[in-house]
Amino acid sequence: MSQSGIVYRPRRLRGTPALRRLVAETRLHPADLVLPLFVKEGLLEPSPIPSMPGQVQHTEETLGKAVAEAADAGLGGVMLFGIPERRDATGSQGDAENGILQRAIRIARHAVAEARPDSSGPRPSLVVMADTCLDEFTDHGHCGVLDSAGRVDNDATLDRYARMAVAQARAGADVVAPSGMMDGQVAMIREALDEAGFEDTVILAYSAKYASAFYGPFRDAVDSQLEGDRRTYQMDPANAREGLREADLDLAEGADMVMVKPAGSYLDILRAVADRSDVPVAAYQVSGEYSMIEAAAANGWIDRRAAALESVTAIRRAGADLILTYYALDIASWLR
Ligand code: PBG
């Protein structure tokens, strides 16, 4: 024993940047990051989203550029959200062959396939994911169709999701991501995809998706029409066990990957799902998580880069294999 009587000195391994880097248990890599992107039909110029500084609603043209940029940055994927010009009760543009989201998927596919302008070879490929949900497409803003009493009709909605998923697969989506929290949505979508010949289309299930105030800025991003809330289908933030059950059900229904959402306030759920899942686990750092950091940083109250990196590292540490984050491009450039 030393004279001080201290045997163990954990600070030793924190002594230099090189030592800290060597022993870091968690690392971020661009390939594990997925960038959410919004594209709005009929838009002539990209339109900044006021509540999400730095994020925009893309035109079809700028979407292609954004996807190419994401691929060049080495990101793992993009998650596409479409904002249609016309909305109706059943969200018919959601599965229209020429609907904005299907067009966006084709644009993204094309952008990834194209050779780099400087012809240093083809772009690193990237996974094209699409949000499989009706809320951007319905005139009432709910994630499903409504029954005569104005409630979201679970089983009638499943048929709409199935058609949407097939339309997205047909347009070239590698991954469809049902985010509406309807019971049985994964099984229904799997069956429809297989029947249409899309056995290889991946399902990323939003399994434990909570009714969260942190989606606030997203509602701006998609010009949401919603009045009221989604508490009859999204989960109660008070519940943990229920989130595990949702993940188990999605796995049993054939989900290829499961997701926990939001991420930052649900790290316990993320850890528990990661511990019991044999498939990749995703987490979504949602709009409000992003905007809180942006707002605080804009006021000079926190260091933007450090806070963004810390928040995403924490999500990874809690068990996420892949992370959807509006910081994906920033992080890729910070890691370079
Ligand atoms: C539903 C969907 C939402 C988000 C992703 N998919 C909105 C909601 O459930 O209300 C939120 C993402 C974010 O806040 O960044 N289509």
Describe the structure in your own words.
This protein has 336 residues and is of the alpha/beta class. It has a domain at 26-258: TIM Barrel (Alpha-Beta Barrel). The chain is built from eleven helices and ten strands. The chain has helices at residues 17-23, 60-72, 100-113, 154-171, 185-195, 216-221, 241-252, 267-276, 287-298, 304-317, 328-335; strands at residues 33-40, 47-48, 56-58, 77-83, 127-132, 175-178, 202-209, 257-261, 281-285, 322-325. Strands 1-4-5-6-7-8-9-10 form an eight-stranded parallel β-barrel, surrounded by eight helices. It binds ligand PBG. Ligand PBG binds at residues 131, 133, 135, 179, 215, 218, 230, 286-287.
Can you tell me the residue ranges where pLDDT is under 50 for at least 5 consecutive residues?
none
Question: What letter string, H or E per element, gives the SSE order?
Answer: HEEEHEHEHEHEHHEHEHHEH
Hetero ligands:
ligand PBG
Q: What would the average pLDDT be, to the nearest integer?
A: 96
Q: Which fold does the CATH topology of the domain at 26-258 refer to?
A: TIM Barrel
Computed structural class = alpha/beta
CATH superfamily annotation of the domain at 26-258: Aldolase class I
- The N- and C-terminal alpha carbons lie at a distance of 43 Å
Percent strand: 15-25%
Q: Trace the largest sheet across and list its strands.
A: 1-4-5-6-7-8-9-10
Short note summarizing the structure:
This protein is an alpha/beta fold and 336 residues long.
Write the layout of secondary structure elements.
Layout lengths: L16 H7 L9 E8 L6 E2 L7 E3 L1 H13 L4 E7 L16 H14 L13 E6 L21 H18 L3 E4 L6 H11 L6 E8 L6 H6 L19 H12 L4 E5 L5 H10 L4 E5 L1 H12 L5 H14 L4 E4 L2 H8 L1
Parallel strand pairs: 1-3, 1-4, 1-10, 4-5, 5-6, 6-7, 7-8, 8-9, 9-10
Antiparallel strand pairs: 2-3
Helix pairs in contact: 2-3, 3-4, 4-5
Bound molecules: ligand PBG.
